[in-house]
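USER:
Before I trust my own judgement here, I would like a peer's view. Write it directly below this note and I will take it from there.

ASSISTANT:
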Amino acid sequence: MREFLKKNGTRSVLATVISILVGLIAGAILVLIVGLTSKEIGLKGAWEGIRLIIAGTFSTGRDTTGALSFGFNPQIIGNMLFRAVPLILCGLSVALAYKTGLFNIGASGQYLAGTCATLFVALSIPAGSMPQFVIWILAFLAGVLAGALWGAIPGLLKAFLNINEVLACIMTNWIAANLVTWMFDISNLKNAVEGTKTGYIYKTTYGLINVNGTWTYQDGLGVATPKLGLNKLFPGSQVNGGILIAVIIAIVVYIILTKTTFGYELKACGANRHAARYAGIRDKQSIVYSMAIAGALAGAAAALYYLSGNTELYWSVYQKLPAEGFNGIAVAMLASCNPIACIFTGLFMSAINLHGLQLANLTAYNEYITDVIIAVIVYLSAFSLLIKTWISGARKKAPKAGTLLTYGILGLSFGLTFFLSFVGIILSAVGLSKAKTFVKDGNEMTKKARIGKILSIVGLVVSIVETVLFIVWAILALVVFNKLGGA
């Protein structure tokens, strides 16, 4: 059993499972506390919320008596598969870069670049000028190419100017957001057919046609990703063949990284750039390739999402970066950056998000509680090395007293950090539930609003203390592992 636990694959899977379980438990506790402090929810509502947090994918609504019912829900499961596509591909984007020694925090910008190129190509080619499947392929490839080009920018800066890719990616994210907003603002792709949707770009099912010398758009003449029979398995859902394409891409990435010379060179360069150069590997070229491929994967995520035919883009994207890019980091970290594991963690993240929607639709809770679950899971996945070490329990020699003391301080700091972080989140959540808005009665705040404000402030203070402890913990971790690494 000990030898089995020492295997890296086993420890990675168990570390992920532990992170997920702790995250779900933390979410359940938060749901319980909020429920018990709210007259609208109560203990019964809290129990319903916990059930939805854990098994919301299989919720079928409420029966005639008003009780929650569970079973096979093809619509929810189909929507989970559909929403998992961009998460899987953005997770692959982050995972591939990480495997090659780079941190791609620019997936959101690459996703936007892919979105822009995909929609411009899909909506600018006149309907009937060529077969629809050709337009679909051109639009998909445009999204992939745009993402690759945008991802190559931080790669070039890293390779030739040694500029940290994290800083470069953050800058390119916001440049992409403003550039894409400007391009859509001056375009003719804003939805003018449905009068109330001018803030949105046409869905790709709209085709460009010429009516009496005037170019306009008509629904049903555009392109959409084929369903490939999945709509019969999951009727009423948004699912299409995009999920199959995402799985195939994940398998291809895995093969490239583990079975090809090209993938070995990328990983070797990431492990030690100078040693790779000494071995004859073109390190600068490898860095650019890594970031370009990572960008292409994020661009593919956007292309498949918006080519579905049932999604539309709110074009003022400069106001908020797409969450898919940052959620891809969570997917990759939870999967230990394994391309195949990204498929399953992407599905899990998609399911958790849908659980939040079910929670909001069927109870008095806010769906953002699931963000707490994801945050806890990501928080723990960042410390997967410690969890793996704890699981294996492997020690080459008896620990010295000084080592035990150091580990004790380290563990205590981490425990306090995690505890205070959770307490801060709970206090803030309870405070906001007590006072969704600080309603004033004349010059005096209502009692509920006052309590809510106090709890929210206390939660903020606790969170600040938690941040300080996190910094202390990080410093201790660096010191400990630097001293013990060579032992």
Summary: The beta strands are 59-62, 68-70, 206-211, 214-219, 440-441, 444-445. Residues 76-363 form a domain with the ABC transporter involved in vitamin B12 uptake, BtuC fold (CATH 1.10.3470). The CA atoms of residues 413 and 473 lie 6 Å apart. Residues 394-398, 436-444 have pLDDT under 50 and may be disordered.
